[in-house]
Here is the input.
Amino acid sequence: MLSVRLFIGIPIVLGVLALSFLDMYLSDRLVSFWIVNRIPRGIILFPLFILVVAILCNEVLDLLEAARIKPRRSTVYLCNTGLVLICWLACIWQQWKLDQVPTENLISPTGWDWAATASIVTLVAIALCVVVAFVGEIIHFKSPGNHAINLSGAVFTVVYIGLLATFLVQLRVAFGIAALFSLIIVAKMGDIGAFLVGRMIGRTKLSPGLSPGKTIEGLIGGLAFGCFGSWVWFKIVIPITAGNTWLIDGDVIHKTPMIGWIAFGFFVSGAGVLGDLSESLLKREAMRKDSSRWLPGFGGVLDIFDSLLIAAPVAYACWVFRWVCPGYH
Here is the structure.
């Protein structure tokens, strides 16, 4: 199983890194096209992410159907991909607006402006998604049945996939690739630490009924690995690359205090464990071992993104409230 994960996982990681560097290289470059005067952030990664969101929707819908909950698939796909698209476009629109304002007239960090605009627009979009979900059930209503349950499943999927995915978009666009990578590295270091420590010394079950393989010792190891990954990223990688916008875009100031990177590592890796357990809950309810067969050895695409989805708003909050990189602007 581990060999299969490595065989499939390494090419995926290398491919994502290559696309990320291309995305960084192109982002914010000056262009002259209609009213656009620079290439939007995420221009390379965003189309790929839309595809990932659609795949995640498909896997969650399959799990819900196995649990006898059947939301309207077309409604769920439309709402989730539309929600993520609207969030990204809101950030790009805010970027265009800020480009019209002289730098000396800005009174708040640009990352905050982008995040505030995207958050407000996303909130309105979620409300519209709820309306669309209702309309879908109303149109197809013929007789009393499971319409309320199906409606709940649609709204749940929009929140679980669409809403949480918008935090990944905002990390990339509002705060730069450094913020997105900080989430991925810390969450995945937590996964690795929980797996290794759990296998070596794990004895006390964390949640026997939900995920028998997870242990309290593994949880502690995951938190420790997450804090270590946070330290490496904020105290070594970002200072080394500071000023080289081809590697780390945005004006990232690297003076993250110790309490900042410890808190980031602890809470993000802890949220990652919660994300893993959340997916386990869905699979247990559906009586399925894997969310799909898309990726042999991984249990599905959701198995890769479960920790990132739940940890994304935690990482976002740390960046917005300046727990990390407090000099970012």
Notes: The chain has nine helices and four strands. The first strand starts at residue 30 and ends at 33. The longest helix spans residues 110-139. Residues 275 and 306 are 5 Å apart (CA to CA).
